[in-house]
Amino acid sequence: MGERGRGGCCPPMDLMRSEQMQLVQLILPVESAHLAVSYLGDLGLIQFKDLNAEKSPFQRTYAIQIKRCGEMARKLRFFRDQMSKAGLAPAARSLPPAVLSLDDLEVKLGDLDAELVEINANDEKLQHSYNELMEYKLVLQKAGEFFNSALSSAEAHQREYASNQSGEESLETPLLPELETANDSSKHVKLGFITGLVPREKSMAFERILFRATRGNVFLKQAVVDEPVIDPVSGEKVEKNVFAVFFSGERAKNKILKICEAFGANRYSFSEDLSKKTQMITEVSGRLSELKSTLDAGAVHRGNLLQTIGEQFEQWNLLVRKEKAIYHTLNMLSIDVTKKCLVAEGWSPVFATKKIQEALHRATHDSKSQVDAIFQVLYTREMPPTYFRTNKFTSAFQEIVDAYGVAKYQEANPGVFTIVTFPFLFAVMFGDWGHGICLLLATLYFIIREKKLSSQKLGDIMEMTFGGRYVIMLMAIFSIYTGFIYNEFFSVPFELFAPSAYVCRDPSCRDSTTVGLIKVRDTYPFGVDPAWHGTRSELPFLNSLKMKMSILLGVAQMNLGIIMSFFNALFFKNSLNVWFQFVPQIIFLNSLFGYLSALIIIKWCTGSQADLYHVMIYMFLSPTDELGENQLFPGQKTTQLVLLLLALVSVPWMLLPKPFLLKQQHNRQHGDSYAPLPDAEESLQSEANHDSHSHEEFEFCEVFVHQLIHTIEFVLGAVSNTASYLRLWALSLAHSELSVVFYEKVLLLAWGYNNVVVLIVGILIFICATVGVLLVMETLSAFLHALRLHWVEFQNKFYEGDGYKFYPFSLALLAHEEETL
């Protein structure tokens, strides 16, 4: 790995082993530290370690700067909320006309924030006044109608009384003349009134509470306002009624005022002098017009200010986030006792050494520092992080592996094989080239529009689908391939590559399902002969084919996993794992299930009628019995005895030697009284980073129990994992049968009615069932089963997955990440 990096700054991508990492130490002068961290963030190839973990965030060196950045971020969020309410969007990112420093930006954001807050406060006050005047105008109009109607009613009543006085008395003539009552001032009752607006939904309850509180000694008059009114308090549009309450006495007035306050009724004064009503309405209308003009002018000014902010918002937001990230990283650095240097430690790939040194030198030059930064490699026994450089195609496959566990440092990566095996095993369960074409078309839509879609916010499900678009593309391509092998297009077979090798015995094909067909041509060249579909022997034939194919694929993939454990042992120079893990495991698996796979292939090639179930069962129960008609090749009995003996021997081979050899190795390493002295640099590093396990006592019982569990797990897992691969057969059969049901019981049934409406309904049901069940639910089901086969049956043979990911400090990622609010 190290040799590769010498040919250039960026070696070719290698997914088999993670990049070779190194622990580096940087000594940065204070005057160039900020610029150096910024350049390293642009590079994005170093993961800093927190050297101040024991300190709280408030005790760190740059806590004040982070607080300033947090305050500026708050102001920017306030600007974004205001732009969102105004229906404005920040302008697309472009190069700023002038690069602002953090201090200048802080002053500018403070001025803009103060101005916008003042504009909002003034606007809120003016809007409140405007809404109150609008309600006041409605009260003047509606309450004026109350008094006008009452006055006209009184005048009519007076005229009627005068006409009655001129005529003869009748039964309806009052006993006590009203004129006498009017002349007696002691009998006058002075009524007060309160006018305002109450929400329409509360008007009935308002009326009932008034009646009960005053024992009916009030008169309430209400009028409906046609249009919703903006409430001055809440600022929302509310349907309201104008009311006028007439009462007598101060006690009743106090009760009415409390009830109005409880119901949120806004009260407005109304003059008893009706002659002033028109003048007051004119004055209110004039004030409303002035306020409207002022509000419009304020809205224009506010819009211009927000538009000015929006033009530079993205640049300011990115600058603040970058500065906050830089200062957060600087807080992870330890400060020298002289307070003139900052010391940083972090992990970086070996190939990035030259780039890091160039970035440090450039930071020293640009900051005009007198002292250059120091870069040195530290030697440590600490486990480095795992770093795989992926692209947009391989990243989704690597995420599938990382979801199980991140690879240990330079451990063999299953992601290399997952790129091929994952979509292929999915396709074995999803084999239909019609459904595969539908999946491919849907995926091509995401791939063609990936630039546009990557910059948009998608839903959770769409985001996951878009992220795995290349995985789904390969799944679709492999499904088309296996669909050609199964010869299924929405469950319908086609003679794609040649005519069928079988024909009916007579022209009417009456005996095709009972007696069978006859072979007249060469075997169908690729995949299943279309003549098998619809026959009585279709299911037995396909079940046998897919079940045996599943076993072959499973044994092959498990063998690949065990072989990868061999390469891991070679890479880490662990000879014990080679001789006492790889060798017995490969012997045990192939003595049983490798032999079964060989029998399947021999049976296919020879056309034998041997019962493989009988062969495998009696290989254990009666290994010395004669095979008879189940014999597939000469010497089969002896071969089975040898394989059975090897399988039995491999179990103690896995279990016993390794714990004793580990104990012997431990005693040899720690039994010597003297050892050569390490170099000075190595001695310092070993004291700081020495593995704690080297000082622990060797627990033989614990190691032996661990090896026992591992052995039992492998022996039982060899059987259960092989059986687990039969899910390939089961799901393939289920997918095929569901396709047949939807085709025959929906589409063909609707076609048989010879009715256009029924046919259209049948086609719609068929499309919905195919998309909903076969293209969505079945896709998800096959995906999850393929995921289980890789995680459990394949990766547990060699993959430890106990590493941790390499997360470099990268400013480029800030542009694509959502800001944490």
From TrEMBL:
<dbReference type="GO" id="GO:0046961">
    <property type="term" value="F:proton-transporting ATPase activity, rotational mechanism"/>
</dbReference>
<comment type="similarity">
    <text>Belongs to the V-ATPase 116 kDa subunit family.</text>
</comment>
<keyword id="KW-0812">Transmembrane</keyword>
<dbReference type="InterPro" id="IPR002490">
    <property type="entry name" value="V-ATPase_116kDa_su"/>
</dbReference>
<feature type="transmembrane region" description="Helical">
    <location>
        <begin position="578"/>
        <end position="602"/>
    </location>
</feature>
<feature type="transmembrane region" description="Helical">
    <location>
        <begin position="424"/>
        <end position="448"/>
    </location>
</feature>
<dbReference type="GO" id="GO:0051117">
    <property type="term" value="F:ATPase binding"/>
</dbReference>
<dbReference type="Pfam" id="PF01496">
    <property type="entry name" value="V_ATPase_I"/>
</dbReference>
<keyword id="KW-0813">Transport</keyword>
<keyword id="KW-0472">Membrane</keyword>
<feature type="transmembrane region" description="Helical">
    <location>
        <begin position="469"/>
        <end position="486"/>
    </location>
</feature>
<feature type="transmembrane region" description="Helical">
    <location>
        <begin position="549"/>
        <end position="571"/>
    </location>
</feature>
<keyword id="KW-0406">Ion transport</keyword>
<comment type="function">
    <text>Essential component of the vacuolar proton pump (V-ATPase), a multimeric enzyme that catalyzes the translocation of protons across the membranes. Required for assembly and activity of the V-ATPase.</text>
</comment>
<feature type="transmembrane region" description="Helical">
    <location>
        <begin position="638"/>
        <end position="656"/>
    </location>
</feature>
<dbReference type="GO" id="GO:0007035">
    <property type="term" value="P:vacuolar acidification"/>
</dbReference>
<feature type="transmembrane region" description="Helical">
    <location>
        <begin position="757"/>
        <end position="777"/>
    </location>
</feature>
<keyword id="KW-1133">Transmembrane helix</keyword>
<keyword id="KW-0375">Hydrogen ion transport</keyword>
<dbReference type="GO" id="GO:0000220">
    <property type="term" value="C:vacuolar proton-transporting V-type ATPase, V0 domain"/>
</dbReference>
<protein>
    <recommendedName>
        <fullName>V-type proton ATPase subunit a</fullName>
    </recommendedName>
</protein>
<dbReference type="InterPro" id="IPR026028">
    <property type="entry name" value="V-type_ATPase_116kDa_su_euka"/>
</dbReference>
